[in-house]
């Protein structure tokens, strides 16, 4: 089962195919589902070794659910999650054990994700509690604290003694202590102040280079995602609408949603910001409990045509390495 | 749509708001937090003033102090506030109520907690107008429908009957904008108006605020931590740190010619998505200051790459750099040594 040697170096580390995760939010009194929230509704992507894949989208688009389903915090309804040659989707809790170690996660809320009753040492080494003697655990915690730029005299303190940025470093230290191949970062900086965000992002980049980590960076802050990612997937209402290398996606977006999203992004440069012609989308994102027929974006799309409500657009290659799901002629930029 | 004439005539150059040496403290179990320390600034007719800074820098408390919306633990301990020529810092609650929500429109971060969930949106708009403008309910209703249409709510006369929970987040913030502007205020204060919104909805609301502000010729104060929002919407900017204004100037001064090391640090911390090459971020090291025991000198000393001996003992004055551009840093003192910015790794 753990035969990782069978895969070649060129194979992606993670390959997600047609992943579906629905939540039943309302049931009839006999337990039949009445309302289903289609959080992730057929998502496919790959992550290559050593790269950073950014997943962006607005709230409710399913980006967090993708991350959580990949590490089986949520049970997928269908689809496969091939990690280093092994499909994680059908594995039992016990069989998942070695993979949980290799696939770590950093969470958004640095206040809620650390147990307030545990010391920093215990938090960082919780994953290896049964394997290491107390002295070795202390040692490991110290090394990890040093790696993330904290002092060893922080080791015996409790989470409440730290600021948000420091807590996020502790969360990263906890992930690193497991010596993972891949870290899924779910909005790791959105709760932090601007000056602290840059500290954490720079540290993630340095760690990635030093340790050869593969990162999945889930966020709604487009400029930070562009900064850190080598490739980007744009999600809308449970689907990926466009993927591409970070540079190309920003330089030449194909999908109308990506275009609107990029044009709405605030730019910290007054002359550029004021010259920027914004595409202002109408209305709000529809509820994922009532997904529109055909293309999900058609209710807000400035180019919506008749076919868009009838047929779901295929996610196809519109240019080398560029995929987009839109009915527009060749997905050409308008 | 023309703005209704305001009660008091203002000459174009006179300030709408002038704040002088404002000081606010919070009494907490851990001690006295000096949240706003000696803040002075003005707002002129028609302009948008941005106040930027990170959490705890005192930007929201400054506004709450001006409007006297501080929680019970907070107290303004010094300074004066002149609004439309009158010193309102001595006003009692009754007189303040004639200003808040009437001559000063307010928009807050979270529209769900700012709207009353048990009254329809129409009721809230109408009551607001009847109270402040003394017009009949019928006239108020007509104005409310107009205002909802103006903020881009479809079918406004029907939507008047809806309750806040029946609106989405973006729509609720539109309703907040309608309530804030329906009394034709002289000044609009928006405290993180788009922080809780998604980026496409944020673009809608910012566009709406810009359009209405121009149509109604209202002055505005926009409090935010988002430098992109400031760059897009503000004419002048105050940068706050540790309860003090560390730099102020026109938006171009702040973004293209920042003088204070903190402003430079903030700008270095955010990636510019339009930059032709990928720049490495230059974060500000260390942690934000603890205002329970603020440093004697400049609050930025522990994180400043140029810190000198004088900085930790004496708070610098605000030195003029150019017309209307001031920086509170010892480096701007006429006799200060020239900082070697390149050697310190500052790229912008």
Describe the structure.
The complex is a heterodimer of chains A (334) and B (348). Chain A has 334 residues and is an alpha/beta fold. Chain A has a domain at 4-117 and 158-253: Rossmann fold. Chain A is built from eleven helices and twelve strands. Chain A has helices at residues 63-70, 93-102, 120-125, 134-147, 164-177, 194-211, 222-228, 246-251, 256-264, 270-275, 306-310, and strands spanning 14-27, 33-47, 52-56, 78-83, 86-87, 103-106, 182-186, 214-219, 231-236, 239-245, 315-319, 322-325. In chain A, the strands form two sheets. Chain A has an eight-stranded mixed beta sheet, sandwiched between helices. In chain A, strands 2-1-4-5 form a four-stranded antiparallel beta sheet. In chain A, helix 4 crosses helix 5 (164-177). In chain A, 46% of the residues are buried. In chain B, helix 8 links the parallel strand 7 (187-191) and strand 8. Chain B starts with 16 loop residues before the first strand and ends in a 21-residue tail after the last strand. Helices cover 31% and strands 22% of the residues of chain B. The radius of gyration of chain B is 21 Å and the shape is globular. Chain B has helices at residues 59-67, 93-99, 111-114, 121-133, 137-150, 156-159, 169-181, 199-216, 227-233, 251-256, 261-269, 309-313; strands at 17-28, 31-43, 48-52, 74-83, 86-87, 104-107, 187-191, 219-224, 236-241, 244-250, 319-322, 325-327. Chain A binds chain B through residues 58-59, 163, 165-166, 193-199, 201-202, 220, 222-224, 226-227, 250, 260-274, 276, 278, 280-281, 284-285, and chain B through 54-55, 168-171, 198-204, 207, 225-232, 251-252, 255-256, 265-274, 278, 280-285, 287-288.
Task: State the low-pLDDT regions of chain B, or none.
Answer: 1-12, 342-348
Measured by residues with Cβ under 8 Å of the partner chain's Cβ, the largest interface is:
A-B, 42 and 45 residues
Structural Rg of chain B = 21 Å
- For the CA atoms, what is the radius of gyration of chain A? 21 Å
């Amino acid at each position: 089962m753990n035969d990782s040697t069978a895969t070649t170096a060129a194979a992606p580390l993670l390959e997600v195919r047609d992943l579906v995760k629905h939540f039943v939010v309302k049931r009839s009194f006999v337990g039949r589902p009445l309302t289903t929230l289609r959080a992730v509704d057929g998502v496919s992507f790959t992550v290559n070794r050593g790269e950073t894949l950014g997943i962006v989208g607005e709230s409710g688009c399913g980006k967090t659910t993708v991350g959580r389903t990949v590490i089986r915090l949520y049970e997928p309804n269908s689809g496969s999650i091939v990690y280093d040659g092994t499909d994680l989707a059908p594995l039992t809790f016990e069989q998942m054990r070695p993979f949980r170690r290799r696939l770590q996660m950093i969470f958004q809320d640095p206040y809620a994700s650390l147990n307030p009753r545990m010391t920093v040492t215990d938090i960082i080494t919780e994953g290896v509690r049964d394997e290491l003697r107390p002295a070795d655990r202390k040692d490991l915690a110290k090394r990890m604290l040093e790696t993330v730029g904290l002092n060893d005299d922080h080791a015996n303190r409790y989470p409440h003694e730290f600021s948000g940025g420091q807590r996020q470093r502790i969360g990263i230290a906890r992930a690193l202590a497991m010596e993972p191949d891949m870290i899924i970062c779910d909005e790791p900086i959105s709760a932090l102040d601007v000056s602290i965000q840059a500290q954490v992002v720079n540290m993630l980049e340095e760690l990635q280079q030093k340790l050869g980590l593969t990162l999945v960076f889930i966020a709604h802050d487009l400029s930070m995602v562009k900064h850190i990612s080598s490739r980007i997937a744009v999600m809308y209402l449970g689907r990926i609408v466009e993927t591409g290398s970070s540079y190309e996606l920003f330089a030449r977006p194909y999908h109308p949603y990506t275009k609107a999203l990029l044009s709405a992004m605030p730019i910290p440069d007054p002359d550029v910001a004021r010259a920027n012609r914004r595409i202002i989308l109408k209305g709000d994102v529809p509820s994922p409990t009532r997904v529109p027929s055909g293309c999900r974006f058609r209710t807000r799309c400035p180019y919506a045509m008749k076919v868009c409500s009838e047929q779901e657009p295929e996610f196809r290659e519109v240019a080398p390495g560029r995929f987009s799901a839109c009915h527009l002629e060749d997905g050409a930029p308008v | 749509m023309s703005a209704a004439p305001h009660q008091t005539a203002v000459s174009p150059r006179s300030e709408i708001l002038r704040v002088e040496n404002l000081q606010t403290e919070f009494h907490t179990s851990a001690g006295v937090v000096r949240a706003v320390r000696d803040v002075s600034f003005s707002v002129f007719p028609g302009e948008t003033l941005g106040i930027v800074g990170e959490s705890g820098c005192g930007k929201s408390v400054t506004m709450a102090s001006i409007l006297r919306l501080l929680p019970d633990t907070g107290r303004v301990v010094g300074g004066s506030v002149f609004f439309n020529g009158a010193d309102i810092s001595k006003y009692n609650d009754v007189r303040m109520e004639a200003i808040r929500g009437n001559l000063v429109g307010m928009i807050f971060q979270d529209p769900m907690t700012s709207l009353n969930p048990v009254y329809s949106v129409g009721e809230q708009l109408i009551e607001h107008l009847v109270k402040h403008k003394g017009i009949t309910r019928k006239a108020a209703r007509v104005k409310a429908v107009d205002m909802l249409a103006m903020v881009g709510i479809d079918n406004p006369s029907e939507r008047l009957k809806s309750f806040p929970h029946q609106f989405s987040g973006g729509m609720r913030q539109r309703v907040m904008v309608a309530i804030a502007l329906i009394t034709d205020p002289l000044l609009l204060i928006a405290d993180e108006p788009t922080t809780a919104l998604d980026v496409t909805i944020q673009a809608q609301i910012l566009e709406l605020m810009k359009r209405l502000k121009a149509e109604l010729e209202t002055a505005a104060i926009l409090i935010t931590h988002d430098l992109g929002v400031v760059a897009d919407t503000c004419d002048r900017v105050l940068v706050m740190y540790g309860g003090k204004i560390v730099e102020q100037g026109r938006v171009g001064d702040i973004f293209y010619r920042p003088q204070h090391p903190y402003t430079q640090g903030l700008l270095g911390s955010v990636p510019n998505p339009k930059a032709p090459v990928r720049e490495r971020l230059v974060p500000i090291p260390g942690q934000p200051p603890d205002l329970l025991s603020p440093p004697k000198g400049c609050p930025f000393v522990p994180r400043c790459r140029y810190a000198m001996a004088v900085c930790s003992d004496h708070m610098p004055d605000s030195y003029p750099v150019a017309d209307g551009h001031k920086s509170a840093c010892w480096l701007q003192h006429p006799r200060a040594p020239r900082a070697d910015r390149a050697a310190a790794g500052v790229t912008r």
